[in-house]
Amino acid sequence: MNTEGLAAQPPLPTAPRPRALGTDRLLLGAFIGAMLLAPALIAPFYVTLLNYIGLYAMVALGLVLLTGVGGLTSFGQAAFVGLGAYTTGALTTATHLPAWLAWAGSSPWITLVIGLLLTGAVAWVLGQITLKLSGHFLPLGTIAWGISLYFLFGTAESLGGHTGLSGIPPINLLGWTLDESQEIYYLILAFLLLAVFTTQNLLDSREGRAIRALKGGRIMAEAMGVNTARARMVIFVLAALQACASGWLYAHMQRFINPTPFGVHFGIEYLFMAVIGGAGHVWGALVGSAVITVLKQWLQDVLPQVLGSNGNFEVIVFGILMMLVLHRAREGLWPILRRWVPVQAPPKQIDPEAEPLPRRAPRQPGEVLLEARDVTRKFGGLVANNQMSLSVKAGEILALIGPNGAGKSTMFNQLSGVDTPTSGEIRFLGQPITGHASRDIARMGMSRTFQHVKLLSKMSVLENVAIGAHRRSHEGVFSAAWRLDRKEEARILKEAAHQLERVGLGAYLHEPAGSLALGQQRILEIARALCADPCLLLLDEPAAGLRYKEKDALAELLKKLRAEGMAILIVEHDMDFVMNLVDRVVVMEFGEKIAEGLPDEIQRNPAVLEAYLGGVE
After folding, report:
1. Is a pLDDT exceeding 80 seen at residue 483?
2. Helices 486-503 + 206-216 axis angle, to 10
3. Domain assignment present for 576
4. Nearest CA to 516 among 527, 506, 504, 524?
5. Which of 250, 320, 446, 539 is 20 to 30 A away from residue 48, measured at CA?
């Protein structure tokens, strides 16, 4: 196939090449080495400060995953810290536990497991309620349950009320009692590095791409087969578990807890840490926690001397700092720091030896794959689609055309599951799909592009296309976090690279998708749709923004797909492109079908000429 037109534009300026492959690892090793030596080189006070930074960073890291990557704002993470702290505090200090529960308080390590299980269950229940909210209602919901858990900690007599719990035992590790700041420091560091390691691995995976798609376009993600409700729940629970582990460590470091550190005001502070450090960056959690913790300590010492009185003046400074960051560095401090040491992750390598992903069986030419019967969609008194019927067969290209406002995109949404018809029936592969979720329809073999391009602009071209293969792979969160999914990941990336080569974008694998021209972005959407291995392809204005040669190359690609037995339904305003390509045409006006037939017939149809030209002589 000739794809010269699609790749004809001069190569885009490439991003700065990364330094030697091991530079980032050397810097990470230097950081870990410095942290390991810190207790021997600095005063105990500063070791304690580092402990708090590590504990806060674990919570902020969950917020990076939840807010920065997933786009879900939460002010209630301090309550999950409290769950971890109070679970271990209550169990390890209780003197009259029932016989069947006595074992639970025998070791802090047992209470850690119980706390994680309890927090996971509570987070799942709260998530079922909270994550159904959207807009400003979502953060308000997190404030509501954050306040509720805070008052639970303070009013339950079994939890010590506002007085709190004392006498919490230290952690024992291999016979070593961690009862000093310098000793528990290494355990906190190990937990923090484990959280960073697993979070980075998760984001660099099939599940991670689904999570990153939440912030950029849930409709697109669902159309590619991603269960966005599940992805939201996954990051909500993971963020809660990281906060719980931080609370467990906090309780055994302090040996005393009360409700004060688990209120909503601390939840807001954790969010400050994530945003100031860089809410979209894993290492931003550590930077933000360090900046806020050190600055808070410094301001508490300096401001009373300057102002001559005591008070929470640091809160005022934090507010000003937040406004400055939001105005001047919206991505936080970490991207700025990274410019000083310009280390980039090496481009993803494509393994030519990776096994191909499984493919669905080809359909028989002429087989009816999609059939819509009397589809009507009403929005109040507006009838967007009225008694619309059409069918698409394997091995043909059907065009759906009509003037602006004719209801074509609404019909597309009915067919792909983005919207549900008011009445009528839609069948795909012989199965009724009316009212089915778009991700379930995508799993059956329908894939689509969008009238307004829906891409994740900061993700690479390769990873954008790899989202399309989500339903063709199965590795989950645990496998991703521990890098047990590398073989499957190699297969996905190989498929994504193949589809990009197929459409002529092979030279742009590692470029940010947002850096491509609009026409290239439309071609990128087609590559992503093809990565799902569909038997039916729905294209919404694919030629918009393309130049003449690019349109020719796109037409050649669609003809090749048709020859392979794929069914294609296309909405397009470029009549020259449509009439020289498609097998049949359906024409809409005011939500109704006014004509159907071969391209030559449609071009002579009086009703079509009336709709487009306002009448014929």
Report:
1. yes
2. 60
3. yes
4. 524
5. 320
